[in-house]
Queue: 3 jobs
Job 1
Amino acid sequence: MPEAAIDHIYDYDPKFLDDILKSVKSIAMVGASPDKTKFSYGVLRVLHETGYDMIPVNPNPKVAEIRGIKVYHSLAEIDRPVDMVEVFRPKEEVYGLAEQAIAIGAKVFWCQIGVYDDEAAKLAEDAGLKVVMNRCPKIELFRPFWKPRLDLKI
């Protein structure tokens, strides 16, 4: 079993996240959903409207497009360069997806809030990818302007 990598559950340097979001152009979203009530749909929508080249990945053969964007059924099927692989899948799938992200030459491996795997992080980092886990790029894009008030009572 490989030695655990950096603990990706906690804080990242805001500049590290900002540099990633400023440098990537194409984002393959594994777990993209055509269901407008799903969080992945909203994140895809915002990132697409912000100007990223979104590449939805959904294994369901009945899903051909999301928001008018062609859907790929696996990372290996993508026919163009991918800067970042964003994961909306359970932890059990993360290590295999890290292997696939490396295989397609992605530069960044990013897992959504609640999704992290230290072994997958170490694998991707050892292969030269920047890794972010347990974060949402949509939230990070707006973080400089949006400061949650966690001290307020509900």
Job 2
Amino acid sequence: MLKINKKVEYALMAIKYMTTNKEELTSAREICDLFNIPFDTMAKVMQSMNNEQILLSVKGVKGGYKLAKDLREISYMDIARVVEGKEVAFTCQNGKKCLVSSCNIITPIRRLSMKINNYLEKLTVHELLFGEDNEQRK
């Protein structure tokens, strides 16, 4: 099973919420209060997405964030890279990258990782959050 980082979950929660607030700005505090999640983490997640032009920030007392891109232009992997700050890698069962050269399933695990990553590169945030299939848009 694919394990999703909490920061990625928070990013997706914020993005989905912001789709309902299209004309209004959304603050990190608003999302934290609504979903009962830690403010510092959410603020960092939203700032990371702002730095990569996924979100647009407006400063000031009535400031906040709004979506800067169409969700069909952002892949799941885009969000994961931005929020986690590193390339997403498939790991062995023990949670660490495999260091054992005698592992007899390293090739199948690498193949699985490549297939999953390829799928997640093509999976748009819109498709993930709202269920629209890529095939329906062609």
Job 3
Amino acid sequence: MDKDPQIRIAGISDALEVSRLLKSAMLTYCADSGISSSMLEAMTESVESVADRISRQTCLVAVSDGKIVGSICIKRVDNPLVYNFSEKTYGYLKDAGLSFYISRFAVLQDFRKSGVGIDLMAKAIDIAHESDARSILLHSAASNKNMVEFYGKRGFRLIDSESSRGYMRGLFALSFR
């Protein structure tokens, strides 16, 4: 096993392996969050859908010994109000300006707590910062203590939460203002 997995931009040819990684990681996410896997869109997403995301967004993968062990996608959001669901959220997002949104963050079980997730997140934050973004947004189950703590250590704070998907889902933001 490589000591330091290499991070690179994903290609469409990575879609199958990324899809398998996401489904595996999301099972742990569901267990840690106390939610059913049927509540997550990522669990039913096709390989073609993953390939489409890779082609439209900046998707990064961490590769160790030729195997994808982590992934994260980040996309530019010129109007972050698309994530508005309450007056509280609106109060934060109305002046957010250029933002980025993180999704499909996953690390293979054997590579958790190894720094791979920290490295992927740092690279995604760098991409947003270098693009003059004012903030980065992401959603995560508010009940997932591990992820809430992970995001908090990276400077993200919980802006608001809602339950339209059947579980308490938090909107987290990292501001560069």
